[in-house]
Amino acid sequence: MIKRQEDVKADFDKILTEHLTEAFANFIRFQISIADKSPKGVRYGNDFKQFALTLHLLGPSAYKYMSKIIHLPSTSTLHRITRNWQFNAGFNDFVFAAIKLRVDTLEERNRECVICLDEMSLKSHLFYNVSADEIIGFQDIRNRRKAEIADHALVVMVRGLIYNWKQPLEYFFSHSSVDANELKEIIFESIERLHNIGLNVRLVVSDMGSNFYKLVFKDLKLTEASPYFCVNGKKVHYMFDVPHLLKSTRNNFFSYLFLFRNNEINKKYLEEFYAKDKIKQYRLAPRLTDMHLYPSNFQKMKVKLASQVFSNSVTVGLNTYISFNELPQSATFTAHFIEDMDKLFDVLNSSRFKDCKPLQAAFIGNSAQVTVLQKMKSFFEEVKIFKGEKDITKRMKFLHGWGLTIAAFSELWKDMQSSNIPYLFTRYLNQDCLENYFGKVRNASGNARNPTPIQFARSFKKLFAVQYFHHVEGANCLDDLSSILTNINAESLRKVEFMFQPATFQPIAVKCTDYRLNPLMGIKKSPSYRDYWSVNEDLQDPYISKFMPVKHITFQTNLYAEQVYQLTNKRYSQTNLTEVKTFIGLNLLMGIKKSPSYRDYWSVNEDLQDPYISKFMPVNRFFAGSLHFKIHARQSVQLVVEPYTLERQFSNAI
């Protein structure tokens, strides 16, 4: 009987080998081997995980259906693969290789995309990553680290132009906002990398921060006549974020007087209308409130409030009050301005094929949509803005922003028509995806308004993985089982091998250390954390924090220096807490640059030097104030007694 079973297995194996591909045959063998096991008791190898992941990328709905028929790893198991993914600030080849797997499933037209850039504020913080032997929290832009504490993160995200897919690409830590020159390098390299993996970048979108404004008009030298630049011979248009422009227009409308063809556009008419309308039982503009007309700094950031000011209901209300002589006829032009801004926002914020407001439907280039764009382009070119009697039109950045944005969109639409794209959802051309992404980062960081760099880095990794497994609408999903199995082969498995490489940890090289601070090792940790090297527990070396209170080091340095002066008449000067903290701070551990003469400094280890610190504490001064440490090759005085003995001798002397 046993022999018969073995014969059957051999015959079956022979049939698999002769009639099926090797990959499919191995798949059948594996399914037979785990048929009697509990789903939780199955251990999947990397080869099968590669198969499962490729299957999931080709069709999530098919994967879910097949998991009911055959044994497949759960989606959570596939997510756990991401624990070995290693993300660093800057460009990661791994990220683009992973995205390429998704791109390969997209139809050609769905590879048209937009790059979005935006910055968020961070809480300055340094974190020592033991596994990578790296301090996270310094400025890190394009793999160029500087000894400056990061307080901003720049994120680059790619999103679909036709279908609503999106994926974060990379992030950069910076001290203040990223410089315009560096922004240019980041944008060009991002576009080139996306071209290399099969995506076609049509547009770049950003807000109107001073660095982005300088990038567009000074570095890229874009104009309304030429609102694009070229990368590898391909045109890439540049637009400013429409919601940001809308808020900027509202803020300037509330602050200054607009004059268009000698007609006044003034907030006072809106205030007069609101004062009369809000006391009515049945209001013409029921959504209008005090926060709309008198927003706080925080409320000014909300696009919703700006869009409700520039709305059809407010326009109707103003015109109604004018027709009943409740408002002067001069308020007509203010009503027209609000109406035109409402129409412009509708055209540039569409997200559906049909809408109750015709202008808010998908952009198809009809006469009504084009007329709005042309009319508002002329308005922003001709309008004059006054602060009192002073003409400040040339200072108004939002006017140039609107002009470039409308021109860039018009050029983009012409290019899309030549590529047989019949429509555009203009809401895909703004930064909403990044604003939502930053909200998720804050939530993942414990609802921190300003997360630390390490919190941001961990959130980026987590959110990249979550977004990566989302189904992309418009992908080439292979829904039938036989088609999927046929398309899985050795080549497709090799494409995802990089995802299963175990995390590599290099041993930290530790050089021979000269422990010359041993006399201080009997000191207990102070109860006040402010007395220490760093106020953040994450930055403490327990060996140092236990034995090196800054106040004690400062006191001992000055005490012994004065004692040496009494013994040798060697001149010295008092040091202070700031100098000591600067000198022995974390910057010493970074090893940014090698000192010209490392023997002149506190440590004899050449990797611990930082010229930034040396400026604050010249060698001679520190040498004079720290002879008791016995660490300098130049030292001429040899103290033969222990520090506490010296301290007692000095105390007795005075």
UniProtKB/TrEMBL annotation:
Residues 429-461 form the Transposable element P transposase-like RNase H C-terminal domain. Residues 88-215 form the Transposable element P transposase-like RNase H domain. It holds the Pfam family TNP-like_RNaseH_C. Coiled coil: none annotated. This is Transposase IS4. Residues 244-353 form the Transposable element P transposase-like GTP-binding insertion domain. It comes from Popillia japonica. Residues 16-80 form the THAP9-like helix-turn-helix domain.
